[in-house]
Design a protein that fits this description.
The protein is mainly β. About 0% of the residues lie in helices and about 50% in strands. It has one domain (about 5-240): Porin (Beta Barrel). The radius of gyration is 16 Å and the shape is globular.
């Protein structure tokens, strides 16, 4: 479990694993995404009757493959890392995670001093195709979730915490939960699998929202997504690896 609290925007050195405005880095087993299915917003995607969740999605800006373009136009190449990383400078901050140094999926949060809400995204390469998703059996996934809250683009609280998911491929269901920390409340998720994506309902205390995401890698070896609430302080992005 990791917890981070920030009082003022840190003038931290750019993490070595993050490159701004460059071509994608990577690991040994990355593949090109089967298509660019970026969504302008993951909000509202939930329930069992909707369409397949996109390969990449962002509440603002644009996410695709291993890149996130922020609302202010800053482009970030999201290199593979173990755990999570934070880069801050020039009035903007990005926190993101990868499912290992050679992982397919990326997920994270971005804010700036001129943009007083936090934006969330998930994306990746090697997106699992619908015909590659197992049709029988169950699996558990373990990973991280990132949540960053800001009201003025400078003073923030949040960090990262553990996330776990149980998937029943035969029943096409998924259930997940994040671990409560001093800075992050528990978020519980329950939904259905459609194609190689998933979506459903999310809850955090009395707050209700939606979550959605996608599988990545051979036989759905990874997943990533976002949980979005009307009260944005409960929003988060997550990624996990099949155990």
């Amino acid at each position: 479990m990791e917890v981070v609290k920030f009082g003022k925007l840190l003038a931290a050195a750019v993490a070595a694993s993050l490159v701004v405005g460059c071509s994608s880095g990577g690991g040994g087993h990355h593949h090109s995404s089967n298509s660019d299915q970026s969504s302008a917003s993951p909000k509202g995607s939930g329930g069992s009757g909707g369409s397949e969740a996109p390969v990449s999605a962002a509440t603002a800006g644009k996410a695709s493959d291993q890149t996130y373009v922020a609302p202010d136009g800053t482009s970030y190449t999201l290199a593979g890392i173990p755990g999570t990383s934070m880069s801050s400078g020039s009035g903007r901050t990005l926190s993101y995670g990868s499912n290992g140094a050679n992982g397919y999926a990326r997920y994270g949060a971005w804010y700036s001093t001129n943009h007083t809400t936090t934006e969330y995204f998930y994306t990746g390469t090697g997106a699992t195709l619908p015909e590659q998703v197992p049709t029988t059996g169950t699996a558990t996934y373990a990973g991280k979730a990132i949540q960053v809250n800001t009201t003025d683009g400078t003073t923030i609280s949040g960090g990262s915490t553990s996330a776990s998911f149980n998937v029943d491929f035969g029943a096409k269901t998924i259930a997940g939960q994040t671990e409560k920390t001093l800075a992050i409340d528990t978020v519980s998720m329950k939904g259905t699998i459609k194609g190689a994506g998933f979506s459903g309902s999310a809850s955090s205390g009395s707050q209700q929202g939606n979550f959605s995401g996608h599988f990545y890698g051979p036989e759905a070896s990874e997943l990533a997504g976002t949980a979005i609430f009307k009260d944005a302080k409960h929003n988060l992005a997550f990624g996990a690896v099949k155990q």
